[in-house]
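quick one before i forget lol
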Amino acid sequence: MSDSNTQDNGSVENETEQRPNGGGDEGDAWGTLDSSSVHRYAKMPVDRNAPFYNMNHKYRGMAIIFNHEHFDIHSLKSRTGTNVDSDNLSKVLKGLGFRVTVLHNLKSGDVIKYLQQTAEMDHTDNDCLLIAVLTHGEMGMLYAKDTHYKSDNLWYYFTADKCPTLAGKPKIFFIQACQGDKLDGGITLSNRTETDGSSSATYRIPIHADFLIVFSTVPGYFSWRNTTRGSWFMQALCEELRYSGTDRDILTLLTFVAQKVALDFESNTPDMLPMHQQKQVPCITSMLTRLLVFGKKH
C-alpha cells in the first residue's frame, strides 16, 4: 500500500515515489495549491550528482543589461554614474565569454517584452543566462523609464517549465537598486578583550532550481551610487569578476563582493548629516544546486 502526501488544504495526492523514512510529506501552506500534475521533460545538461554546472557548451550565453539613467517619473532623479556601471559590467562579462546586450532607458512594457522574447529563444548551446538591472527601486519593485514593475518579473519567464532549454543551467540576476529608504549606520568593532549518476538516467528538479538572485542591498534599505565611479555594488562585483571570475565559484566570489561593499565603502555627504557615513551590504539569494565556476571560454 503506497503512502500519501497530505496537504494543509485537506486534499490527498497519491505518492509515486517511496520515501526513505516511510512517511508522507506535508506542505506548510494554507489554501488552494497552484500546481500542475503534468510531467514536463527537458534535456539533461549535466549528470544527476555532478558537483559542478556544465560550463562547456558551445557558448557562454546571453548577458542582458537593463541600464536606466533617465525617468519620466518626476520624483525620480537621473542616475548619474550608471553608465560607468553599465560599461564596466559589459566589459567584464564580455571577458568571461558572454554575448552582451545593453538596453538603455526602456519602458516597463519593453522590459517585459524583451524578457519574454529571451525566454522563448533556444538556449541549448549556452552555459547559462545573466541579467543585470541598474535602476531606482523600492521594496519588491523596480523602475523602468515610465513606471515600476515587480522585481520577480525578471525571473518569472525563465523557470524550467517556461524556458526548458535553460533547465538545469544557472540563471543569474544582478540588481543594482534601492529596496527601500532605510539607512544602515553600521557599527564599529573593537579588539577588546541518491546514487545513480549515469548520463542516461532521468531525474526531476524543481522549476525554480538553479537561480541566483543578488540585490545590491538588503530588503528595505538604501543602495549607494557614486556619481563618478558608479555604484558600490557594481564596482565591487566588476572587480571580483575581473580578477577571479574564471577560477572562483560564484558564491565564494559574491561573498568577497559583499565583504568589499561592507568594509571598503561608506557614504560621504557631510552637508547631509543623516546620510553621512552610512554603510551597505548586498543580499544574495541562491537556489543553485551545484558549484558554478565560469572557467575560461575560448
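fyi Residues 1-19, 193-200 have pLDDT under 50 and may be disordered.
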